[in-house]
């Protein structure tokens, strides 16, 4: 079976990529599973594209193989787009999903449902040695809930209600999330590339 390295240390993302790529008979390997130690990549870009490219290109250079990276996040309209590229470290560098969620809910205290519009974004970068990096972007529209609900998924899933649903992303099964998520919409655009790996 073909293998593809995914430049992520996020277990939630890694699991989703495994499910997606298994459909094409490809084994997705996250950085948590590589035998060699890989350094932490500093995500010091100013856009999702820059950060995705930093992760994909640096790991591809080390491994001398094609590498896919995902830079993603939550964009909340009434917070001027925050947490945005800072989604993973919104409540501080040492923060965790719980602290990030609490910070968002705090900042939205008193904000009515019609002003709680948000979207997840996923920017994928595929770095291939000696070729230009490829980028694909996917979105998932929704609203920020008033309380955290559900245990599935990761990150901000417990406070994100996708458009057309009354449940949070963390109350959906992984199969349901993977049909509507920002990550799914980005990967879908890679189908042709995946078939030619
Ligand atoms: O950089 P890697 O190692 O891939 O892992 P990370 O968690 O740091 O990933 P990002 O830098 O791309 O930050 C994205 C953050 O956005 C949030 N996020 C992204 N996709 C999400 C999803 O599908 N559901 C919920 N939250 C998500 C979550 O808090 C992530 O930590
Ligand atoms: Mg990161």
TrEMBL record:
Single GO molecular-function term? ITP diphosphatase activity
Tell me the Pfam families matching this sequence.
Answer: Ham1p_like
Report the catalytic activity: XTP + H2O = XMP + diphosphate + H(+); ITP + H2O = IMP + diphosphate + H(+); dITP + H2O = dIMP + diphosphate + H(+)
Signal sequence annotation: none
Q: Where is the active site?
A: 71
Give the matching SUPFAM superfamilies.
Answer: ITPase-like
According to the record, cofactor stoichiometry and binding are noted as: Binds 1 Mg(2+) ion per subunit.
Q: What job does this protein perform?
A: Pyrophosphatase that catalyzes the hydrolysis of nucleoside triphosphates to their monophosphate derivatives, with a high preference for the non-canonical purine nucleotides XTP (xanthosine triphosphate), dITP (deoxyinosine triphosphate) and ITP. Seems to function as a house-cleaning enzyme that removes non-canonical purine nucleotides from the nucleotide pool, thus preventing their incorporation into DNA/RNA and avoiding chromosomal lesions.
NCBIfam families per the UniProt record, alphabetical: PRK14822.1 (NF011397), RdgB/HAM1 family non-canonical purine NTP pyrophosphatase (TIGR00042)
Quaternary assembly: Homodimer.
Family statement:
Belongs to the HAM1 NTPase family.
Q: What is this protein called?
A: dITP/XTP pyrophosphatase
Which source organism? Answer: Virgibacillus tibetensis
